[in-house]
Amino acid sequence: xxxxxxxxxxxxxxxxxxxxxxxxxxxxxxxxxPGFIHTDLVANGLIPDPYYGTNEDSVQWVYDERRWIYQTxxxxxxxxxxxxxxxxxxxxxxxxxxxxxxxxxHCQHFYDNMxxxxxxxxxxxxxxxxxxxxxxxxxxxxWCRGIYLKSCRYGITLPDRRAFSRLAPYQQGWDxxxxxxxxxxxxxxxxxxxxxxTDCSTRKSSPASxxxxxxxxxxGQSFTFFRDGKPIFVKGANxxxxxxxPVDDKANRDRYRLxxxxxxxxxxxxxxxxxxxxxxxxxxxxxxxxxxxMVWQDFDFSTMLYxxxxxxxxxxxxxxxxxxxxxxxxxxxxxxxxxxxVKNGWEDWGWQDVYHWTPDQRARLEKAMDTxxxxxxxxxxxxxxxxxxxxxxxxxxxxxxxxxxxPLYGWGHxxxxxxxxxxxxGVWWGELPFEVYKEKTGRFMSEYGFQSxxxxxxxxxxxxxxxxxxxxxxxxxxQKHGRGLQIIDxxxxxxxxFDSKSLSLENFCYVSQLLQAWGTGYGIFxxxxxxRCDGTLYWQLNDCWPVASWSSIDYYGNWKALHYRAxxxxxxxxxxxxxxxxxxxxEYYSVYPxxxxxxxxxxxxxxxxxxxxxxxxxxxxxxxxxxLYIETVPHINGHFTSNFVDLRAGQNVCTRFIPADPKADxxxxxxxxxxxxxxxxxxQR
Length: 685
Description:
By secondary structure, the chain is α+β, with helices and mostly antiparallel strands. The protein has 18 helices and 32 strands.
């Protein structure tokens, strides 16, 4: 019998349903709700950890062509009083049927949007009520439910069939994330006697202190945030989901706290919640509120075109109204954005040539963009009559602004440096040198970056010992960009004189992080130094699994070299008081690392433990040291307050270790030190 969390001596108005089970091969197993089928299968020992080794490949069957059934049974006397009750499912991931069997009060309905809270009215006539949720495969061959048949019925080939399903796009694979399409009851389910409708109001609360302006000027069009009437230089990064299975549980809440406090500690004032992930849980926005971090909120649409059939438009409208009403309660939100790179894809990625759309089809697709987002035919980037814009207008009590798309112009257009926000990917995708950042600085840099590998100590947590090689199946599986290693090698040879073939895996991972910090840091430096630019958000802060990626903090919570570099650069004042402070970085970037002189590394190392048990390490340089990296042995996930530093002879650094797990025992750890000096002196050039 399920536990009813809201049960008490008097009949409650609402009870949350627990005691869930799921069926696998004719047997029933305990399920955790909220959760996903993958997390339940792992918890019951039915599949291995998808993150370890090459296990991602071995679990692809889970959601390919299989139905998954969840169910629980509730005694009638435990439910709220009332002739009519409502079942509220706050989040169902994947197309599914809900079946409520109260003997004579049977009802059934179909749902297929994981971002909508679903409400099902029923009559509780029997002694007990069975709730059954059946998740259908994405390719379900049942009338119009599967995305394959939906795409066929639509009549226009779209660039990605994922557009026909309102699931988190990233779960189906990205160039930094695994392909783990999943299903499950990912948010709470409860029964209530008092149904609440979406609370949308046009009344305005006290005005927010943050203002956003896009204004034509002599350069093009600005993209500027103001606080109390004064311009802010925005410093931060892009945010992706913290896990491939992003439930609101203790483990993920710990990740939220670690990542957001790390962002604050590094001088961030904004995060952009990217549109290919999820609408985040309230705990994310609560933390941003408390930390003073502004949030740029994308709607959950990214890099594809979306159908405009009535069923999809109705679902999108409900999704928008529900999520704006929930998220808008948080003062941290300062901007709503309709999508990530949809306009960019439409204009620049060659879809028209690939799919051979007729003029009528092109017109319909353009109208669909305008209906959903507000397609910016001009540089205004405002779609006031679109579905999403109307949801913001109706449901955001602060009247915060809505823009249709990010970026306004792709990086191949000259306007990307003069109009609105810019995603500059000539560095990385275009394989151009980092120096291009100086000439390609736009009005607001909302995406740019460069990959690195996690440290060997991180790799050992997901890679078998016999596969600790850059070309092993595991490390190939955990590099999702098709040219990722090739691009890193090319840039590493240019700036450091090494590559993955000339270095050990440990040293390659270390130098890849120095390269990422050098390149992305140079981008930050250029943005700070350019008076035309009003913000910089690098791609990306975090990972959803352990992987080679653009992140500045790896999946286990370890700061990469880039996060320390961002912290140093974000500590600089904003425009226009930068001239003196930037001289150091001008000199730093004037000489490539491979062209420096490196002495034998000599230093004194000491450690102590404060009364609170925290570990403090001091390194005093006796020779010039470059990119000094300090690590605990055995490795403990976390970061030092200062790391990856350059020290001149006679200088020292005193740094405190902050473990990812506050309960981690650091009482007996040793300290390992690595410098770039060693790489040049003890490895072949």
